[in-house]
Amino acid sequence: MSDGDDREETDRGEGAEEIDYDAVVVGGGPAGCSAAVFAAREGLDVAVFDRGRSSIARCAHLGNYLGFPGGIDVETFYDLAHEHVERAGAELVDDLVESAEKRDGGEAETRFRVTPQEGEPVTARRVVAATRYGDEYLRGLDDDDAMFETHDHGGEVHEHFDREYADPDGATPVDGLYVATPSEADRQVVTAAGRGARVARRVVTDARIDDGWWPAAAEGVDWVRREAERDEEWADRERWVEWFDDRHADAPVDPDGERFARVREAAIDEALSAYVDADEVEARTAEGRRALAGHIDPDAAVDAHGADALLDAMDDEDIAAYAEGTR
Length: 327
Ligand SMILES: Cc1cc2nc3c(=O)[nH]c(=O)nc-3n(C[C@H](O)[C@H](O)[C@H](O)COP(=O)(O)OP(=O)(O)OC[C@H]3O[C@@H](n4cnc5c(N)ncnc54)[C@H](O)[C@@H]3O)c2cc1C
Fold this sequence. Notes:
The chain is α/β, with parallel strands linked by helices. The chain contains 11 helices and 12 strands.
């Protein structure tokens, strides 16, 4: 895993360089965006390629996605999802992936070379397929017989990606390849998003295992907790060390060794970073509402709140800026 700005570049052998990601997500619909948000929030360096045949673009209006009581138009939903991806730290690339080829590194890690239609190829340790339609780029990563199935529709034979090719958490027989969609979850937007999250959790777990974590330590959840709920005893880092040592007494790693200590430090840092104080909750609440408001057209805001309420919400600074023409 790497921090946002220290992406490695691998030599392509012709003097040119390829950008290397921890994970490339192919498809920026509900499944792919959700996968990218979950993976990027855990510090993975993620790119999402998005262009081409889309299921959600065909939906006339989204009325059954939890949290939008009046439904939401697909364009706004898509913009929100893409902004979420970027705020989480992933990169969005407006390009169509044409192929993903596996480079067997022998003793070294497997890497994929992902080639888009217009831009330069990139490499990645992991690829998450998240295209409900348009699965041609997956050909060659495994036997066609394993990945695709054929159906006879009134004498015409059609080939489809096998929705049961991947495990429920997206893992496949190909090391580093995960499938969010096509899957049994891709028939509704909310289930596709849930599947993307689940697959990303698996990606994060596997990335940690590559980094030397053992499975019981590597699995986790993305939770944000209130500082006020933390008992005083847990303010002391030593208490967390005790907790970790108890919990992982049977770890398949020398408890006095460097590896155990390194994973313990990282796991404790992560556990502690989940806690936010009341000021931080307030700041995040305000930022979340601002981000949402940015997608609401002003007429809708006036209809919902009334012009007086909106004027009341403007402070002197806002009014002065408005009068000066700077707002
Ligand atoms: C007519 C219709 C109406 C629907 N109405 C509803 C509804 O009201 N409510 C509901 O819950 N569900 C509805 N659905 C289902 C919903 O659209 C899907 O469940 C959901 O969009 C699946 O999400 P996904 O991320 O798997 O795929 P998609 O939404 O298809 O997203 C995949 C993304 O990948 C991109 N892509 C494709 N190929 C490539 C490639 N090679 N490289 C890069 N990017 C690529 C596409 O551009 C797209 O943005 C409807 C579907 C249709 C067809």
